Amino acid sequence: MKPDVKPANPNFSSGPTSKRPGWNPATLNLESLGRSHRATGPRARLRKVIEDSRQLLGIPEDYLLGIVPGSDTGAFEMAMWCLLGPRPVDIFAWESFGQGWVTDITRQLKLENVNVYDAPYGELPDLRSANAEHDAIFTWNGTTSGVRVANGDWIDADRQGLVLCDATSAVFAMPIDWHKLDVVTWSWQKVLGGEAAHGMLALSPKAVARLESWEPIWPLPKLFRLTKSGKLDREIFAGSTINTPSMLAVEDQLDALSWADRIGGLPELIARSSRNLDTVSQWVAQTPWIEFLAADAAIRSSTSICLAIVDPWFTDQSEASQRDIIKRMVTLLDQENVARDIEGYRDAPPGLRIWGGATVESDDIQKLTPWLNWAWDTIRSSEHE
Question: Which pTM does this prediction carry?
């Protein structure tokens, strides 16, 4: 039967993600709008995003943190194009974004000494293959696969190479071992529900030393340049930006950071995301037609929660038919104003993806699950009439 209770917030998209509970644009500080981002006041607001993010995340004091163009993608591309080259590279990929970094390194940068360690959706490659003498590339959480690394224990604390981590759907939701990482990137529109186009770039002292001792042999676009005359451009990490930022997005991010601090900081953000995963896990355990895409509970994401339909009627269908069934399910739920944007990523196996970051209430996920059963039963029944 059709449930009669709906989630208060039907937004379960994995990016951009739901705004924080109680969000209201009327509460945003708009004094910087219409002004130069290089003026004293607006630049102070940009610097506050950096300082508040550092404090909330517990980033080491000797790491630099800056705002850069192009969201997480721009931040990570910038790091790869500026830092890679002097050492062999080990790349660990298990979903579409990680595979994207493989493509950039092998086909665009055309580095020769590259080792690719990959795994199918739902699994992790052998992280123990990381060589401490090499640079390493990986995503902490696979947004399109629902698979995360459990910790940074596999990274050598005395490594000679740099470790570059795309952490966009992990930071603010999972414990991050900062001292094991030399480059960390993320975007505002993920765990804190901010607006798009702005990336965050954290650099360890080792990464800074590489930037000031290594000059890439390829041309660098202006938007990628982190150095001037062989020295790090430290203004980027003090509130100056390479291109013009959206000050409205800046104020929205400050609002999200303030909310995170008010509710208990990073421990509570992580706890909220964990509760969301627990809520989905309880439903999956009682539901025979659905399973996690990640079979190993130790590596299941608490943010991008990816689910696979395991009913034999579904699995016996062609992939095109499976995708059509999924689309019909998510359309039904959208029409009922119950769930928006929960179809799995286009390159991932056909399935569902529910965002479980801190801005999503576990009560809303709990109210969603009976509707998922209803949508499945509706579609399946229609096929057997």
Answer: 0.97
